[in-house]
């Protein structure tokens, strides 16, 4: 009996291999090679204490109908050397996808390639932002990629045979073309005097060309810096299983309880929040943990292919739970303990990621997820912290995709 069962299992495995191999990894490794391109943003000149928050339109990015497989970025100097966070703090970088009107291009020279626009210019009319699938209101958290100080130590690779479909001509409205823009926000610090990880600031305190307060009498050289970003992609073909991007925000409150009919406007993502100082309530085993939770109804579900959280200094981890309490993904910050770029002491230099075996973690249509973001709280409050979850979800599995 036992042997019979074993035989059955073996033949089943062989059968599966035969069926699955032609359209998954084996096909991929031989036919669809990952391409890599390294690009630099335009230079930004910074003096000690200055803040740069720039929007660059029409950045260099793969053209044509392709599947993105990963994007990484870091701040480098003129020689291409990585700049550590205690010299230049990379608060955020983000990549946005948009359609630009072709007719507008010929008459309006305001949007030259690489022209720098400030956040306050907002999105021009001739451009349509193509946001991710959700779930915040309006254009809030609509980026395709967005990460902060953890950029050097966080894996963004999308496993085979999944990919993020871009540049499909059939999706671009008549008279428009697809382009990408990049926002990056850095603060140059007084060299050698780290911007405190418990730095009190917020989204609305620093904007482009503002100046942080420096030690009296401090003067330092100007520096020329770049955001170097690396894009990995493959040509699109029918074997690629598309994934959708969700960016969940722990500050989001959703008004409606009807999961079949949630409008984007029902969401209220605040992006940032404040961690209150430690009090007796939050004190547990002599440790003070601030736990923030929100409940988020998902209109459409799917299979989780990748998950990662985003937190700021002080963050100690974040978990996304299903309606029944099962863990969908837990992502924990790694703090640096040295001096060199990628290991800066006291900063979040990476986030752990989730790569569930495809098909093993499913979000159901209409399921209400709970997101939890934990920060260690101290005697002082922390302002402007974030609790995001970035999820890649496939609505089909590879074998379903090709039938
Ligand atoms: C830019 O960075 C500063 C500090 O580094 C931060 O306080 C601010 O929120 C950032 N701005 C945006 C729009 O992300
Ligand atoms: C967050 O805190 C809650 C409550 O103490 C705990 O149950 C959970 O495991 C914590 N999650 C992470 C990722 O630290
Ligand atoms: C970070 O630096 C510390 C101190 O030099 C060292 O012990 C540690 O191994 C470094 N970590 C990594 C990931 O390089």
Automatic annotation (TrEMBL):
Keywords for this protein: Signal
Signal sequence range: 1-25
Coiled coil: none
Annotated InterPro entries: Stress_up-reg_Nod19 (IPR011692)
Top-level taxonomic group: Eukaryota
Protein name in UniProt: Stress up-regulated Nod 19 protein
């Amino acid at each position: 009996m036992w042997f019979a069962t074993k035989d059955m299992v073996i033949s089943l495995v062989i059968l599966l291999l035969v069926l699955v191999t032609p359209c998954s990894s084996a096909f991929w490794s031989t036919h669809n090679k990952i391409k890599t391109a390294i690009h630099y943003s335009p230079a930004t000149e910074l003096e000690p204490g200055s803040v740069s928050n720039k929007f660059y339109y029409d950045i260099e990015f793969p053209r044509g109908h392709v599947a993105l497989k990963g994007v990484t970025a870091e701040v480098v100097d003129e020689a291409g050397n990585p700049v550590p966070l205690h010299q230049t703090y990379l608060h955020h970088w983000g990549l946005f996808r948009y359609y630009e009107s072709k007719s507008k291009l010929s008459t309006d020279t305001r949007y030259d390639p690489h022209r720098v626009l400030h956040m306050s210019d907002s999105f021009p009319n001739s451009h349509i932002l193509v946001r991710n699938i959700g779930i915040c209101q309006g254009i809030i958290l609509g980026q395709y990629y967005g990460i902060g100080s953890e950029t050097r130590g966080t894996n963004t690779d999308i496993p085979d045979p999944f990919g993020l479909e871009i540049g499909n001509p059939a999706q671009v409205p008549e008279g428009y073309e697809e382009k990408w823009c990049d926002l990056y926000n850095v603060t140059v610090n007084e060299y050698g005097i780290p911007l405190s990880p418990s730095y009190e600031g917020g989204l609305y305190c620093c904007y482009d060309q503002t100046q942080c307060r420096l030690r009296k009498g401090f003067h330092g050289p100007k520096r020329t810096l770049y955001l170097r970003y690396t894009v990995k992609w493959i040509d699109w073909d029918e074997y690629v299983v598309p994934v959708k991007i969700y960016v969940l925000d722990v500050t989001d409150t959703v008004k409606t309880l009807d999961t079949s009919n949630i409008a984007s406007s029902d969401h209220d993502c605040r992006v940032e929040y404040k961690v209150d100082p430690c009090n007796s309530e939050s004190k547990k085993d002599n440790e003070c943990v601030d736990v923030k939770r929100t409940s988020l109804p998902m209109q459409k579900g799917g299979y989780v292919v990748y998950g990662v959280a985003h937190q700021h200094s002080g963050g100690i981890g974040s978990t996304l739970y299903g309606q029944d309490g099962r863990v969908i993904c837990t992502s924990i910050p790694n703090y640096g303990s040295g001096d060199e770029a990628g290991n800066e002491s006291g900063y979040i230099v990476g986030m752990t990621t989730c790569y569930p075996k495809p098909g093993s973690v499913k979000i159901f249509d209409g399921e209400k997820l709970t997101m939890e973001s934990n920060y260690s709280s101290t005697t002082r409050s922390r302002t402007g912290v974030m609790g995001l979850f970035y999820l890649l979800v496939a609505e089909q599995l590879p074998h379903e995709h090709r039938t």
